[in-house]
Amino acid sequence: MDFRTPEVDRLAAEVIPEEFFELSTQDARDVFFADTRMLDGKQLAHNRYRTSPRSLIDHLAEQLELAGTETLLDVGCGNGFVLEHLRPHLADGRIIGLDIAPGVLQAAEARLAGVATPCEWVEGSADDLSAFGDDSFDRVIATYMMHYVPDIDRCLAEVRRVLRPGGRFVLTTDRPDSMVEMYQTHFAVLREMDAPARLFKATPKARISLINGGEYLNPHFTQVELRTWQDQLRFADAEAFMAFYSAHNYCCAASAPGDLGENFFAELRARARARVQAVIDRDGHFALTKFTGSFICS
Ligand SMILES: C[S@@+](CC[C@H](N)C(=O)[O-])C[C@H]1O[C@@H](n2cnc3c(N)ncnc32)[C@H](O)[C@@H]1O
Hints:
Layout: H1 6-15, H2 25-32, H3 37-49, H4 56-64, E1 71-75, H5 81-86, E2 94-99, H6 102-111, E3 119-123, E4 137-143, H7 152-162, E5 163-174, H8 180-192, H9 213-217, E6 224-235, H10 238-253, H11 257-260, H12 262-283, E7 286-297
Parallel strand pairs: 1-2, 1-4, 2-3, 4-5
Antiparallel strand pairs: 5-7, 6-7
The site of S-adenosylmethionine has 21 residues, from helix 2 and helix 5.
């Protein structure tokens, strides 16, 4: 389905700043992914409010072309959501999940406990895969995580090293203008509130996105193919949207509530909610257009 319209393109050009937020590894490990709440909320929203009948997992399973016997490494595996759903495609294979945040890694382990596919869980940073030998994996995946990695170039060299010849690496991420309707609301409210200029930055995903990902990947892989798809999340309930937005806005605002004060965030949320409710009253739902995809590398 094509959700791209001239209006969405116009918004993207108008709304998304060139400069983007950079998140520290420490924040990833100790704040955003200290527990699974943020990830759980985002995954639930994507599944519950999507319009495309094809889920992220459907796309990944297609791109990975699994026979069922492969050894697969998931770098930045988070709470194991992706691995749980890919696991039936690896019934006679092996799964290794790596993540920098012990909180989510433990959740992944608990989530896959008792499955017959052997699973191993490794705490570490994706730019240091020294725990693994050369040519160890048939497949490596990195899903919505590469923008967090301190040394992306080293990470990709490491992925190439641990991937056996003929193996496949699938890196999945977004375009920086994915969900532009949310950023439009967010920045409009920040402007209303006369917020500090440092808050007007694009998502940290812009660091390595569908737009510039090839520049990082081409030096490391002989073949790099980009496959994109779209979706639209439609929220008919402002509270449901707010739960989703709040998991991002901390990120978008890239600032602990302590910096600006909890009152600032409370007002930001109240104003965003009112805007979204007005759209729902008018259109029946608030839509977020997703531009996402994977680089398939070998
Ligand atoms: C948005 S989540 C994605 C989780 C999972 N791949 C998914 O799609 O559900 C990003 C994950 O990357 C992890 N992460 C952040 N920096 C990392 C690093 N340097 N090395 C490995 N994992 C990292 C986080 O802890 C988090 O679990």
